[in-house]
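Subject: Sanity check before I submit

Could someone independently write out the structure tokens for this chain? I want to compare against mine line by line before I put it in a report. The sequence has 615 residues.
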Amino acid sequence: MCGIIGYIGHRNVVNVILSGLTNLEYRGYDSAGLALRDGSDIKVYKTLGKLVNLKNELEARKSELYNVTCGIGHIRWATHGSPSLVNAHPHSCTCGKLVVVHNGIIENYKELREELIKKGCEFKSQTDTEVIAHLVANEYSKAKNLEMAIQNSVAKLQGAYAICVMHKDVPDLIIGARKHAPMLIGVGDGENFIASDTPAIIEYTKKTIYLDDNEIAIVTKDSVKIKDINGEEIDKKIEILPWEPIALSKLGYKHFMLKEIYEQPDVIRNVLNGKIYDIDEPIILNEVKLDKETIRNLKKIEIIACGTSLHVGLVAKYVLEDFTGISVEVEASSEYIYRKTTTDSSTLVIGVSQSGETADTITAIKQAKAKNAHVLIVTNRPDSNMARLADSLIPVNAGIEVSVAATKSYIAQLVSFYLLGIYMAEVKGTLDSDYLKNLKHEIIQLPTKVEEILSCTNSIQTCAKKFSSFKNFIFIARGVNLATAYEGALKLKEVSYINATGYAAGELKHGPIAMLDETMPVLSILMSGGITYEKVLSNSEEAKARNAKLIALTSSNDEKLDSLFDVVLRVPQVREILSPIIACVPCQLLAYYIAEFLGKDVDQPRNLAKSVTVE
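---
Independent answer below. Compare away.
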């Protein structure tokens, strides 16, 4: 969940590192620091809080820097030890000659710490990372070779790590290593980069080398060597990043979250591009390697995901079961990995992750592969760890998503599952051809209908202002939009810190109704034309009878809703099975505008990170 960048080359090293860390801020952090090679010395600077504090610190002390040739930087999200200067990265060894930055968690750090203390190492922090610094320094004292010292050290580490190391006695060299945590090399001309994610380097180069587990990168300004843990050199392919630096610009929007909400019509078009050519033709999913026999022999589908992606999975359950008749289970990755599953070769396991680096989901995917399940990955990052583990892949093509709160990646994942459902239904022959044609026709129209919502947000802004002072919120829905209620509540919690909960509308009377009074708004999602509309309406009337303030999110033009609900937010008509794609947009906007009215840090909510790379 932290961010790393290392740089060695001809540019202003401080500016490159600070720019890279700025582009990684979306990952979430509570402190920042960097280590700079200045002549024959290594200088370390750390600050708490936002990156601007580190920038100010460096500006005030720039007279100390004379000839900086390389450096490593880090933003930290606290896991071991509270947010403090002593726990901030980079960490150094007892003598101070070696510095290290680290993403991940070292599971055996306590045992290693005890061993190193017995050898005379003096620990200053409560972090697991400091163990790495002392361990490498201890190995270096014996080998007098930094590369070999890192090889010997990482062999002793258990858990997840992406590390960058510099040593005072080894000039103009940065060494990186990874296991179960992302790391890549940016290749330039007379300069090279190491980073935990592509936004850190995309301003400077689009040429990348992705490290795999147990690989070590030896980086100078003119060369990059990749070796395995035994020191054998590996020939790695240089890949070209698909994004441009402009993707990291707000383009005039106040926040990235708002920009990314408004990008959603084009995101849907990108997802559909190349997959639906004509409503009379089958769906094309070139990277889905499920043949007809495999699909027809599937007995079960398991969807594993976390957070917003888990809510996508809950919508997908309704869609896939409705379209294919195959039983679907949806489970949080963090629960899946700790139980004995019935996954086997007749199971399709679908992992869903915006970043493709979600640690719990990666672990779950590996367990499923070990049981011979076919693994399909739905991700926004086809260059990710999860994508590399996949038997089949659906890249959702949402582009770089900077705001921590997922919006455009959510809608892209949703649309991708509808396409997968149609693809499988066409193979199995489970849906009528006329129904399929009409369904495809409506899907093609979805970008225009989302644009219709985004073209007139006055009612949503008015609603947000009216309800921004409330401390609690309930979202209710039934059927395919139950997950929309969960996601709407999550978005509100994430960016405004209002306590919001999603419930199945039928469960309201089984406990939650006790909380209802004039201080508890209830947002009801009720889409016309479906079997759940009247039931959700009835549940809303029950809430009204308890004096709850009511908001309707609906596609109905029924005027009687205006007398029952305090606010009615109307969206374009779609068939009920497709309505989650439409209904999620007002929920996103409501959360955004409430958070903005409250003056919250919309793009970087407290305690949250974009990519959760530790279990």
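---
OP: Matches mine. For the report I'm noting this point. The chain has a mean pLDDT of 92.
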